[in-house]
Amino acid sequence: MTATTYLEWEDQTNGSNNNTWGDVSDANSAIFEQAIARYLPLSTTGGSTTLTSSQNRYPIIVVSGVLASNATIVVRTAEKNWTIKNVTTGNFTLTVKTAAGREGMDFYELRHYCATRLLERGVSDADVAVALGHTDGGELVRRVYGHPAERHSLDRVRDAMRRAA
Question: How many whole angstroms separate alpha carbon 56 and alpha carbon 82?
Answer without folding.
Answer: 9
